[in-house]
SMP-30/gluconolactonase/LRE family protein
Amino acid sequence: MNVTTLATGLKFPEGPVALPNGDVLVVELLRGTLTRITPDGTTSVVAELGGGPNGAALGPDGRVYVTNNGGMMGFEVGGFTWAGGIAPDYVTGSIQAVDLTDGSVETLYTECDGQQLRSASDLVFDAHGGMYFTDYGKSDGVTGDKGRLFYATADGTSIKLLTGGMDGPNGIGLSPDGTRLYVNETFTARVWWWEVTAPGEIKGGLSMGGSGGGNFLYTAPDHTNFDGLGIEAGGNLCVASMVHTGISVVSPQGELVEFVDIDVDNDPGLTNICWGGEGLRTAYITMASTGQLVKVDWPRPGLRLNYGPTGEPDGEQA
C-alpha cells in the first residue's frame, strides 16, 4: 500500500478530522493544540486547548468537538515518543468545542453527576446531534480508574453515564445505520458492541462478563494494542493497531477481513484513522510516535459521518 506523508513534527497527533475543503485537522496531545494541515503539508494552530486533546469530530453546529484527557506525560521508548500517566498540572478531563472561524474554545463538560471526567478519549456523533464518548481513566502506574462510556448533547446541557467498569475504552464508532455502538479497549485489544435502542440508550448483555456489559465482537490474535476506530461505508470496523502496526479490518460479524500493515519509519504508534477526499476513498492516519500524518488510497470508502465531509468532488457539501 502506497503511504504518503503529509506532515511531520507533530507532537503525538491523534483524532484526525477530514474537512470538505481538503484540509485535515489533528489534535496534538503533547502540544495541547488543534492543528490544521493543508494538502501541501502546511501546518497551523487552530486553537490552544491545553491539557491533553485526544479525539475530535465535527459537530452539528460546524464546530469541532474535542475529547480532552486533561494531560499526559510524554516519554520515549526505543527512540519513539509515547504518552501516558498523569501530567503534573492535571485537573480534570473535559469535552471542548472549537469554533473554526476564530479558534475560540468552549468547555462544555468536566463532570457527570458530580463525578469528574477523568480522561476523555474519543467520540462519535449520532444523527440526533448527540455524542457518545469514551473515558479511558487515569493511572499512576500502580492503581488506575475503570473506564466509562457517556452520552452528551452538543449544547452542553445534558450528559449521562451509560456504562462503566471497562478496561481502557478508547476508540468508538457507530454502524452505518446507527443501530450499533462499537468501542475498543487498548491493552486487552478487544472490541465490544451494544445495540442502540434510542438516542443515548444502549443494550448489551449477550456476553457473560462482557466489559461494560457489552457484547464481544473481536480480539487481536497477537500482541497488539488498539487505539482509534473508524467505520467503512460497508460497515467494517477499521481499528488502529499499535505495536503490530497497521489497521485491523473487522467485519460486523467479528471476523478479521484483513490486516493492513502500515510501516512509516517503523513507527509502532499508529493511533487513528479517518476518511476524506472524493468518494471518501482517502484514509488519513496518525502516526503518533514519530509525529506524522500520512494518507493512503483505501480499497473501500469510509463511512460518511453525520456531520463530516460528504465525499463529493471539489469539496462540495450535500
Summary: The chain has a mean pLDDT of 96. The longest strand covers residues 190-198. Residues 3-315 form a domain with the Neuraminidase fold (CATH 2.120.10.30).
